[in-house]
Design a protein that fits this description.
92 residues, mainly alpha, Methane Monooxygenase Hydroxylase, Chain G, domain 1, Ribosomal_bS20, Ribosomal_bS20_sf, ribosomal protein, rRNA-binding
Length: 92
Amino acid sequence: MPIKQSAVKELRKTKKRTARNRSAKSNIKDALKKVTKALQSKDIVAARAAAQEAVKILDKAAAKHIIHRNKAARKKSRVFAAIKKIEADKRG
């Protein structure tokens, strides 16, 4: 345990930030799982709606430096690539 008052305060701040970041990362995972579930059921409309929500959550997390902006871009790219693949399979 920290001894100095500044170290005690820093520990409090770290715990608060960790909880906030963990919550945000959990929201990201949940949003991406919704997209994956919609894609597995081949429901394009639900997948698009879930993708829009996931993009919103990813962008907010990247803006707040919870995840790196390149990671957010990579996740979004993979989501939309998967949607396009399902659409192409349905067309022919």
